[in-house]
Amino acid sequence: MSPLISVIAPIFNEGAGVDRFVARLADVLGDAALDYELVLVDDGSSDDSWSRIAHCALVDPRVRGLRLSRNFGKEAALLAGLEHAAGDAVVVIDSDLQHPPSAIPAMVRRWQDGAHVVEAVKRNRAGQGLGNRLGSRLFNRAFTRLTQVDLVDATDFRLLGRPAVEALRRMPEHSTFFRGTSSWIGFTRATVEVDIDHREGGASRWTLRGLFRLAVNGLTSFTSAPLHMVTLAGLAFAVFAVVLGVQTLVRWISGGSVAGFTTVILLLLVTGTFVLIGLGVIGEYLARIHDEVRARPRYLVQERAGAPDSAERRVVEQRAER
Ligand code: UDP
Ligand code: MG
């Protein structure tokens, strides 16, 4: 029996893009004669995405739809997909065709050759503006430096074998960062190179604010380096204060006058800024702890479409066995 491949795609206000995506996937995976199911996760779209998904699920038994009760964000949508996928391997892909579905057969081959996680890395990034590219480059570099989890040229487009999926599902954290967690789990890895296409239809669904939150979540969930930096900066300030104090003392003893109202103001500003930033950094971690402690569900499913959820059936069976 050939293995079942689950393809998970988050969908947020993609409209006509849904049909295009499902058709492309059916083409590519059909040509490669792969046995697959497609799990489309509607992340609280406000357009007709859900009715299109429901329609696709109706005409194609391999398509299943999952509708979240509101917009929970891409990360939560991915998680919902992972938890409802039944395949022996799971492919996570964007639904805007920026991730070329044509790479999936190659990823599956790598998986069959023994890799547990197959990452698509970008050869280029046609679909991004200069600012966006610089921003993500900077973030990825910083993240890689701070956390030892390599994000340079990484994408969310990856294949995970069943053990890797189970490992991910065991991570209970509230604000997830798929690109980070799916690297953190380890497992035998392989990569395939892909060209990131221009977006087909519409603009990026990310807002600057959303991206900033993603960056902060990603960093705070993987490293406490910013906290240590606050400590280090505090130490630097202490050293500076001692040096300045000694110098002033020497000058006072040697009879020089000690003036400098401006210096006082400047120093106050500098220390004030530092204290506020330090507090902010601590606050970010505190907010995360708060989120985790509340332990609210990471997403809520409102509706499903398509064949009964085999992943769910399996969960029920497992519970019954216990
Ligand atoms: N997406 C989502 N929820 C959101 C934002 C985006 O499910 O809140 C989906 C979107 O439909 C697309 C994928 O995530 O399939 C990537 O989004 P986008 O193309 O806007 O991001 P970019 O390619 O600019 O990183
Ligand atoms: Mg995109």
UniProtKB/TrEMBL annotation:
Family annotation (InterPro entries): Glyco_trans_2-like, Glycosyltransferase_2, Nucleotide-diphossugar_trans
Every Glycosyltransferase 2-like domain range: 6-138
A cellular component annotation (GO) from this entry: plasma membrane
SUPFAM superfamilies linked: Nucleotide-diphospho-sugar transferases (SSF53448)
Membrane recorded as keyword: yes
Keyword flag Membrane: yes
Ranges annotated as spanning the membrane: 230-253, 259-287
Keywords: Membrane, Transferase, Transmembrane, Transmembrane helix
An MF annotation (GO) of this entry: transferase activity
Family listed: Belongs to the glycosyltransferase 2 family.
Protein name from the UniProt record: Glycosyltransferase involved in cell wall biosynthesis
Organism: Actinoplanes campanulatus
Classification lineage: Bacteria, Bacillati, Actinomycetota, Actinomycetes, Micromonosporales
